[in-house]
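Same chain as my last thread, 204 residues:
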Amino acid sequence: MIEQLRSFFEYLLNSEEIIRNGGLALLMLIIFAETGLFIGFFLPGDYLLFLAGLTSASGLFPIQLYILVPAVALAAFLGNTVGFFTGRYFGPRLFNKKNSLIFKKENLERTKAFYEKHGSITIVAARFLPIVRTFAPILAGAIQMPFKKFSWLNLVGATAWVGLLIPAGYFLGVQFPWLKNYVEYIIIGFIVITRSEEHTSELQ
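reply #2:
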């Protein structure tokens, strides 16, 4: 059982396998989980979106851009909406919750600190920050942000995040088809960039 769970999580972290074998439905599910469920913070959102665009351009992921972008943006929007109501329902109890295998209080505290520095724009900016993007909508619900305001920011953030990364991968894939042979280096690059963004945001 433990070995099966380990294999399952390894699969979820393998962006190439997700794109190649999981199809649009699994891509949407993962984006939904990363942006809406606190257990999804470890999922590979940024480079998964970029690779979806890259492989769409090469034909390895046979989904047209005009379908891919709106569908994934919808998943990101709905994910954050679920996160918002999770935070609203559980509220302050989340800050008193003990650490477990799938919940780390420091992730919520980091998001709270980011929100205190940047205000409501966190809902948009957090889309581009791993871990923070998972907990930002949960925090928004916990602090009772008006749902109408949250929904507008959520829409802007989902559209900007998906609408930037997928087309960026697509157009680079069209211009430089050989990039699909260097997926592992692209993933490493994304990890370095996103970790640098996290570090910069903590210093600001």
